[in-house]
Amino acid sequence: MRSNQSAPTLLPAGIERYVPDAPPELLLIACTDPVLDAHLLPRFCRRPLLVWRSTGPVVPPYGPENQELAEALDEVLNRLAVKEIAICGHLPNKTLEAIVADQVAGEESTNDAFHHYVQSIRPRVQKKHGPLDPGRLIEAITEENIFVQTANLRTYPSVLLGMVNGKLRLHSWFFDANEDQLYAHGTIESCFLSRFEEFSQPASHAISQMSACDMYLA
Protein backbone atom coordinates (compact mmCIF):
# COMPACT_ATOMS: atom_id res chain seq x y z
CA MET A 1 0.00 0.00 0.00
CA ARG A 2 1.33 3.39 -0.94
CA SER A 3 1.75 5.93 1.80
CA ASN A 4 1.92 9.72 1.50
CA GLN A 5 3.70 9.91 4.83
CA SER A 6 6.79 12.05 4.47
CA ALA A 7 10.24 10.55 4.84
CA PRO A 8 12.61 12.12 7.40
CA THR A 9 13.09 15.87 7.15
CA LEU A 10 16.57 15.71 5.66
CA LEU A 11 15.52 13.72 2.63
CA PRO A 12 15.30 15.59 -0.69
CA ALA A 13 12.06 17.22 -1.74
CA GLY A 14 9.84 14.87 -3.70
CA ILE A 15 10.73 11.71 -1.83
CA GLU A 16 8.05 9.12 -1.14
CA ARG A 17 8.08 6.29 1.35
CA TYR A 18 6.35 2.96 0.82
CA VAL A 19 5.41 0.61 3.69
CA PRO A 20 6.56 3.20 6.27
CA ASP A 21 6.19 0.87 9.26
CA ALA A 22 9.19 -1.20 8.10
CA PRO A 23 12.85 -0.24 7.52
CA PRO A 24 13.33 0.73 3.86
CA GLU A 25 15.31 -1.81 1.84
CA LEU A 26 16.07 0.33 -1.20
CA LEU A 27 16.40 3.94 -2.30
CA LEU A 28 15.09 4.12 -5.88
CA ILE A 29 16.16 7.21 -7.83
CA ALA A 30 13.72 7.63 -10.68
CA CYS A 31 12.45 10.20 -13.15
CA THR A 32 9.45 12.44 -12.52
CA ASP A 33 7.82 10.98 -15.64
CA PRO A 34 4.77 8.85 -14.68
CA VAL A 35 5.89 5.76 -16.68
CA LEU A 36 7.28 3.96 -13.63
CA ASP A 37 4.16 4.82 -11.60
CA ALA A 38 2.01 3.08 -14.17
CA HIS A 39 4.14 0.00 -14.80
CA LEU A 40 6.79 -0.70 -12.14
CA LEU A 41 6.04 0.95 -8.81
CA PRO A 42 2.68 -0.80 -8.30
CA ARG A 43 4.72 -3.99 -7.96
CA PHE A 44 7.64 -2.53 -6.03
CA CYS A 45 5.42 -0.78 -3.47
CA ARG A 46 4.66 -4.11 -1.79
CA ARG A 47 8.11 -3.82 -0.20
CA PRO A 48 9.46 -1.03 2.05
CA LEU A 49 11.42 1.44 -0.05
CA LEU A 50 12.12 5.10 -0.62
CA VAL A 51 11.60 6.76 -4.00
CA TRP A 52 13.35 10.00 -4.89
CA ARG A 53 12.34 11.59 -8.19
CA SER A 54 14.23 14.04 -10.36
CA THR A 55 13.86 14.91 -14.03
CA GLY A 56 16.03 12.58 -16.05
CA PRO A 57 16.81 11.24 -13.46
CA VAL A 58 19.74 13.47 -12.52
CA VAL A 59 21.98 13.19 -9.45
CA PRO A 60 24.19 16.28 -9.12
CA PRO A 61 27.81 15.50 -8.19
CA TYR A 62 29.01 16.11 -4.65
CA GLY A 63 30.00 19.68 -3.88
CA PRO A 64 29.32 22.65 -1.56
CA GLU A 65 26.16 23.53 -3.48
CA ASN A 66 24.70 20.05 -2.89
CA GLN A 67 25.10 19.72 0.87
CA GLU A 68 21.38 19.13 1.34
CA LEU A 69 21.58 16.02 -0.82
CA ALA A 70 24.76 14.90 0.95
CA GLU A 71 22.99 15.17 4.31
CA ALA A 72 19.99 13.33 2.89
CA LEU A 73 22.15 10.43 1.75
CA ASP A 74 23.82 10.36 5.16
CA GLU A 75 20.36 10.06 6.69
CA VAL A 76 19.31 7.28 4.32
CA LEU A 77 22.49 5.24 4.64
CA ASN A 78 23.37 5.77 8.30
CA ARG A 79 20.16 6.26 10.27
CA LEU A 80 17.82 4.29 8.02
CA ALA A 81 20.56 1.77 7.10
CA VAL A 82 19.44 1.39 3.48
CA LYS A 83 21.63 -1.26 1.83
CA GLU A 84 20.85 -0.67 -1.83
CA ILE A 85 20.45 2.33 -4.14
CA ALA A 86 19.20 1.96 -7.71
CA ILE A 87 19.10 4.58 -10.43
CA CYS A 88 16.42 3.63 -12.92
CA GLY A 89 15.95 5.05 -16.39
CA HIS A 90 12.98 4.18 -18.58
CA LEU A 91 11.36 4.06 -21.98
CA PRO A 92 9.31 5.69 -23.30
CA ASN A 93 10.71 9.01 -22.05
CA LYS A 94 8.72 11.95 -23.41
CA THR A 95 10.94 14.55 -21.74
CA LEU A 96 14.06 13.15 -23.40
CA GLU A 97 12.29 12.81 -26.74
CA ALA A 98 11.34 16.50 -26.60
CA ILE A 99 14.90 17.57 -25.74
CA VAL A 100 16.42 15.58 -28.60
CA ALA A 101 13.78 16.87 -31.03
CA ASP A 102 14.63 20.46 -30.05
CA GLN A 103 18.35 19.80 -30.56
CA VAL A 104 17.77 18.28 -33.99
CA ALA A 105 15.67 21.29 -34.96
CA GLY A 106 18.36 23.66 -33.69
CA GLU A 107 16.04 25.18 -31.13
CA GLU A 108 17.31 26.49 -27.81
CA SER A 109 16.54 24.22 -24.87
CA THR A 110 15.92 25.33 -21.31
CA ASN A 111 18.97 25.41 -19.10
CA ASP A 112 18.08 22.74 -16.57
CA ALA A 113 20.31 19.90 -15.41
CA PHE A 114 18.80 17.17 -17.58
CA HIS A 115 19.17 19.28 -20.74
CA HIS A 116 22.81 19.84 -19.82
CA TYR A 117 23.47 16.12 -19.48
CA VAL A 118 21.67 15.24 -22.71
CA GLN A 119 23.72 17.86 -24.56
CA SER A 120 26.96 16.31 -23.27
CA ILE A 121 25.88 12.67 -23.63
CA ARG A 122 24.42 12.75 -27.14
CA PRO A 123 27.71 13.48 -28.99
CA ARG A 124 29.46 10.70 -27.06
CA VAL A 125 26.69 8.24 -27.93
CA GLN A 126 26.81 9.19 -31.60
CA LYS A 127 30.60 8.89 -31.66
CA LYS A 128 30.40 5.38 -30.18
CA HIS A 129 27.56 4.05 -32.30
CA GLY A 130 27.42 6.24 -35.39
CA PRO A 131 24.02 7.14 -36.85
CA LEU A 132 21.10 5.68 -34.90
CA ASP A 133 17.42 5.77 -35.71
CA PRO A 134 15.42 8.00 -33.32
CA GLY A 135 14.25 5.13 -31.11
CA ARG A 136 17.73 3.64 -30.69
CA LEU A 137 19.19 7.10 -30.02
CA ILE A 138 16.73 7.72 -27.18
CA GLU A 139 17.52 4.30 -25.74
CA ALA A 140 21.28 4.85 -25.92
CA ILE A 141 21.07 8.30 -24.30
CA THR A 142 18.81 6.93 -21.57
CA GLU A 143 21.28 4.18 -20.68
CA GLU A 144 24.33 6.43 -20.90
CA ASN A 145 22.61 8.89 -18.57
CA ILE A 146 22.12 6.11 -16.01
CA PHE A 147 25.87 5.40 -16.07
CA VAL A 148 26.70 9.10 -15.63
CA GLN A 149 24.29 9.56 -12.72
CA THR A 150 25.61 6.41 -11.02
CA ALA A 151 29.10 7.88 -11.28
CA ASN A 152 27.84 11.15 -9.78
CA LEU A 153 26.25 9.27 -6.90
CA ARG A 154 29.60 7.65 -6.11
CA THR A 155 31.13 11.08 -5.43
CA TYR A 156 29.18 11.41 -2.16
CA PRO A 157 31.29 10.43 0.87
CA SER A 158 28.59 8.34 2.57
CA VAL A 159 27.94 6.41 -0.65
CA LEU A 160 31.62 5.75 -1.32
CA LEU A 161 32.21 4.72 2.29
CA GLY A 162 29.26 2.32 2.20
CA MET A 163 30.59 0.70 -0.96
CA VAL A 164 34.15 0.41 0.38
CA ASN A 165 32.86 -1.18 3.59
CA GLY A 166 30.68 -3.61 1.66
CA LYS A 167 27.49 -2.24 3.24
CA LEU A 168 25.99 -0.66 0.12
CA ARG A 169 25.18 -1.91 -3.37
CA LEU A 170 24.61 0.47 -6.27
CA HIS A 171 22.52 -0.58 -9.26
CA SER A 172 21.96 0.86 -12.73
CA TRP A 173 18.55 -0.22 -13.99
CA PHE A 174 16.63 0.38 -17.18
CA PHE A 175 12.90 -0.29 -17.49
CA ASP A 176 11.32 -0.66 -20.91
CA ALA A 177 7.59 -0.20 -20.44
CA ASN A 178 6.93 -1.26 -24.03
CA GLU A 179 8.38 -4.71 -23.26
CA ASP A 180 7.50 -4.68 -19.54
CA GLN A 181 11.13 -5.65 -18.98
CA LEU A 182 13.58 -4.51 -16.32
CA TYR A 183 17.23 -4.59 -17.35
CA ALA A 184 20.24 -4.39 -15.05
CA HIS A 185 23.74 -3.29 -15.97
CA GLY A 186 26.57 -5.34 -14.53
CA THR A 187 26.48 -8.45 -12.37
CA ILE A 188 25.75 -7.09 -8.89
CA GLU A 189 22.79 -8.97 -7.45
CA SER A 190 19.96 -7.08 -5.78
CA CYS A 191 18.46 -8.46 -2.58
CA PHE A 192 15.47 -6.21 -3.18
CA LEU A 193 14.77 -7.61 -6.65
CA SER A 194 15.23 -11.17 -5.45
CA ARG A 195 11.96 -10.79 -3.53
CA PHE A 196 10.04 -10.44 -6.79
CA GLU A 197 9.70 -13.54 -8.93
CA GLU A 198 9.31 -11.57 -12.15
CA PHE A 199 12.45 -9.50 -11.46
CA SER A 200 14.64 -11.95 -9.56
CA GLN A 201 16.94 -12.36 -12.56
CA PRO A 202 16.74 -9.13 -14.58
CA ALA A 203 18.14 -9.28 -18.09
CA SER A 204 21.49 -7.69 -18.88
CA HIS A 205 21.05 -5.05 -21.55
CA ALA A 206 23.32 -2.12 -22.35
CA ILE A 207 23.45 -0.60 -25.79
CA SER A 208 26.15 1.76 -24.48
CA GLN A 209 29.14 -0.55 -24.43
CA MET A 210 31.84 1.15 -22.37
CA SER A 211 35.49 1.36 -23.26
CA ALA A 212 38.23 1.13 -20.62
CA CYS A 213 38.38 4.92 -20.26
CA ASP A 214 34.63 5.01 -19.62
CA MET A 215 34.63 2.46 -16.80
CA TYR A 216 34.36 5.17 -14.15
CA LEU A 217 30.82 5.72 -15.39
CA ALA A 218 29.75 2.13 -14.75
Describe what this molecule looks like in 3D.
- The protein has about 220 residues and is of the alpha/beta class.
- It has a single domain, classed as Carbonic anhydrase (Beta-carbonic Anhydrase, Chain A).
- It contains seven helices and seven strands; from the N terminus they run βββααβαβααααββ.
- Strands 1-2-4-3-5-6-7 form a seven-stranded mixed β-sheet, with helices on one face.
- It is globular and about 50 Å long.
Brief summary of the model shown:
The chain is α/β, with parallel strands linked by helices.
Count of helical segments?
A: 7
**The CATH homology group name:** Carbonic anhydrase
Structural class: alpha/beta
Quote the distance from N terminus to C terminus: 33 Å
Number of domains: 1
CATH fold annotation: Beta-carbonic Anhydrase, Chain A
Tell me the strand order in the biggest sheet. Answer: 1-2-4-3-5-6-7
Any descriptors?
Beta-carbonic Anhydrase, Chain A; disordered N terminus; disordered C terminus; 218 residues; globular; 36% helix; 7 strands; 7 helices; alpha/beta; 7-stranded mixed sheet; 17% strand
Helices and strands in order:
Layout: E1 2-3, E2 16-18, E3 26-30, H1 35-39, H2 41-44, E4 49-53, H3 67-79, E5 84-91, H4 94-104, H5 113-129, H6 134-153, H7 157-164, E6 169-176, E7 181-185
Parallel strand pairs: 3-4, 3-5, 5-6
Antiparallel strand pairs: 1-2, 2-4, 6-7
Helix pairs in contact: 3-7, 5-6
